[in-house]
Amino acid sequence: MSFEVTILGSGGALPTLNRNSSAQYVNCSNKHLLIDCGEGTQMQMRKFGVHFQRLDIILISHLHGDHFFGLVGLLSTMRLLGRDGKLTIICPKGLPEIIRQQLEVGYGKLDFDIHYIELTGKEHQLVYEDKSIEILCFPLKHKIPTNGFLIKEKLKERKMKKDLLDHPLLKVEYIHRLKKGEDVIAENGTVLKSNYFTEEPAQPLSYAYCSDTAYAEKIVDCIKNATVLYHEATFLEQHKDLAKITQHSTSKQAATIAKMAGVKTLYMGHLSARYDETTSFINEAKEIFDNVFYVEDGMKIIVQ
Ligand SMILES: [Zn+2]
User: Fold this and answer.
1) Which residues pair with 57 in a beta bridge?
2) I need a labelling partner for 234 at 20 to 30 A (CA). Which of 90, 158, 245, 267 fits?
3) pTM attached to this predicted model
4) Which class for 138: exposed (0-12), middle (13-18), buried (19 or more C-beta within 10 A)?
5) How far away, in angstroms, is 63 Cα from ligand 1 center?
6) 66 catalytic, yes or no?
7) Residue 183 and residue 151 in one domain
8) Considering the chain, what is the average pLDDT of its residues?
């Protein structure tokens, strides 16, 4: 099953013609997630072929406008399109009331169920789990309470060895137990060892999302060995004082976190509108961490 991220908005606080405000669509084991929802996100979803009604969960990192001003519009459009499935929104405390008030002034009403999970921005905990994925939140370091998110596949069952599927003692009804790691006694009394008939499943993949945040080593333990890390890099090294004041990161700081956490690949984003190229960001980051990219709107990341 696929694990893919589509970048819907890669810009900083000020949207530009090329870079929309923050939003990402994640498809993990057929769960459809939206992380952050800056202004214009629904247009970006249309542009890049993301189906509104498929969304199961929306994650909002914090209540700066460039991360949630598109939410009420998206919810209204979902209603107009006839949504009836439940939607889960994991968000900072207070957002449900903001949405309620925004809808109320225009006598608008949503006629599908929203299940809100409100966070204080201080928790490092599991916030969602089903049979195939889990989502953890953790605190970032920003001007207001802000959550990072880690989306993880669950460990899958062991895999049957294909060349043993026609083994004379193997019956179809044994396969389920062997894949669970159980040994099975065949009809003639022979013990069929799970270890012999099956092999280790692939290691679960994971995607960590860290935006917005100042340099914060406390993040490292929360994202240890993630397959892919998205970490904001709003500024270059020459503006590191500005990064500190605004509680954002430079590309070197993002690369340092990636290296300390031992992630496989780093994608940087949340580009300040003062820059018109990202090559310098890559060059500065590569001094510390080699496998690094800068995201663009419409980019697809395969988590692998
Ligand atoms: Zn922010």
Assistant:
1) 33, 88
2) 90
3) 0.92
4) buried
5) 7
6) yes
7) no
8) 95
